[in-house]
Design brief:
Number of helices: 8
Oligomer: single chain
CATH superfamily: Spore Coat Polysaccharide Biosynthesis Protein SpsA, Chain A
Number of strands: 7
Strand content: 15-25%
CATH topology: Spore Coat Polysaccharide Biosynthesis Protein SpsA, Chain A
Number of domains: 1
CATH class: Alpha Beta
Radius of gyration: 18 Å
Shape: globular
Helix content: 25-40%
Strand order of the largest sheet: 3-2-1-4-6-5-7
Structural class: alpha/beta
Order of helices and strands: EHEHEHEHEHEHHEH
Distance between the termini: 41 Å
Length: 245
């Protein structure tokens, strides 16, 4: 086990993204080298292509690159959770592994959490100039409006993979499939502020989408109901002091 103690961990969930591995890692290092002590954690979510082999080859050259592997695909939320639990950094940043999320925005997200001095629990990327099909963009707009109307989380885009947060805050969240889409509402539930950073979307480099967006309406409705219930049932956290003899 390495004794390296980074201040920042970058978590990248991937499934069958072999051709996108090397270019994205190069972009991450370009964005972060010289700014933070960091590690990159790829969570290989049951890939059946050469994703694992590509990662192993780069790991031999980069000591701060780690690979976690799921024996079978558990989905994006499960992959993010595995990465965060294994992370050594106080701050964790995430991005999708398909190349649509530009790592150049990682410093802005990480800095927003740092500047929050403990008050900001999450910095959320908000996509502009999305490169999805018109139908997917329409579905996403409807889903985000419905979610915001019910949860009032003040977030126009929860589907963006570019996020940064305090690791301890994420681990306070109740885990369920789809958690990553409801982080703003759940982080607010715990009393933390949210910082927003506009990020520029770009086309996928290669391959096809392996994870769905929040356009799976019926699943989204069930999740909304559950998160709404969690928020309604939240009680104020008492101020606790220890009394000494």
């Amino acid at each position: 086990m390495s004794t390296f103690q980074p201040s920042v961990s970058i978590v990248v969930p991937v499934r069958n993204e072999a051709d996108n591995i090397a270019p994205l890692i190069e972009e991450i290092t370009t964005a972060l080298d010289g700014r933070w002590d960091y590690e990159i954690i790829y969570v290989n979510d049951g890939s059946t292509d050469a994703t694992g082999e590509r990662l192993k080859a780069i790991m031999a050259q980069r000591s701060n690159l780690r690979q976690l592997r799921h024996s079978r695909s558990g989905g994006q939320s499960a992959a993010v959770r595995s990465g965060v639990r294994a992370a050594r950094g106080v701050i964790v940043a995430t991005l999708d592994g398909d190349g649509q999320n530009n790592p150049a925005f990682l410093p802005d997200l990480i800095a927003a959490v740092e500047k929050g001095a403990g008050r900001v629990g999450l910095a959320a990327g908000q996509r502009v100039g999305r490169k999805d099909t018109g139908f997917k963009k329409f579905q996403s707009r409807v889903a985000n409006r419905v979610r915001n109307a019910i949860l009032q989380d003040g977030t126009r885009d929860t589907g963006c993979g570019l996020k940064a947060f305090r690791r301890e805050v994420f681990l306070m969240m109740p885990y369920f499939d789809g958690l990553h889409r409801f982080l703003p509402a759940l982080v607010r539930r715990e009393g933390y502020d949210i910082a927003y950073v506009d990020v520029v979307d770009r086309p996928r480099r290669s391959g096809v989408s392996n994870y769905g967006f929040f356009d799976r309406l019926w699943i989204g409705i069930m999740d909304l109901a559950g998160v709404w219930w969690l928020i309604r049932r939240k009680k104020p956290t008492p101020d606790v002091t220890e009394v000494n003899a």
